[in-house]
Write a structure and sequence with these properties.
The chain is an alpha/beta fold. It is about 25% helix and about 30% strand. The termini are close together.
Amino acid sequence: MKLTVVGCSGSFPSAESACSSYLVEADGFRLLLDMGNGALGELQRHCGLYDLDAIFLSHLHADHCIDMCAYFVARYYRHEGGRCAPLPVFGPEGTEHRLTTAYADTPSASSMSEVFDFHTVKPSTFEIGPFTVHTERVAHPVEAYAIRIEHGGRSLTYSGDTGVTPVLDELARDTDLFLCEAAFTHGKESIPDLHLNGREAGETATRAGARRLVLTHIPPWTDPQVNLTDARAVYAGPAELAVSGRTYEI
């Protein structure tokens, strides 16, 4: 598998990065995890606008899904070759309604489904293209899912947005790359069931036995080096910060 960080900023885009969006590729199949603010523009540096094969939305906060509205425009009003065929989109219950409401003036209440084939995510195991995926609900104020993606004996686990939860420990068990949010700073913010800090991300990776940790979803007002130092203090494996445009072979 190949992972490309399309965007990794939390809450809103930074000067260096769009919000959460990650491209996973294998066997010519392209799966996008989340499409937050600014992600659609950055995605075109790594993938053709119409070359995605599926999209997974971890939850429906704007910094993880709002560029789906712009992508709707690109797919619905495409002129060359006509309107795009429906693209599989996996998201929490109410995803279609959320995106339709956000766009506000779609031609009709069903227009989104003309270019997106919506599938409701629940805790389960299923196939997306060549990938076997496992999804689990995590600790966040809205319905939110972490995802584990397996292919060719290798695995990638993406936390989405979450507070500390044993569910994530198990989902990331022995994973090859753990893409984990670390929005909070240890000793500064402490709000249960919302976000992890760098130390908590490191502790989760340690409990899970993850082989590599990549911290993501760090908002512009947070010092990422502090979070990385905190993670490394409790996690002995290789740990680094997600950077827009960086790629990983898994």
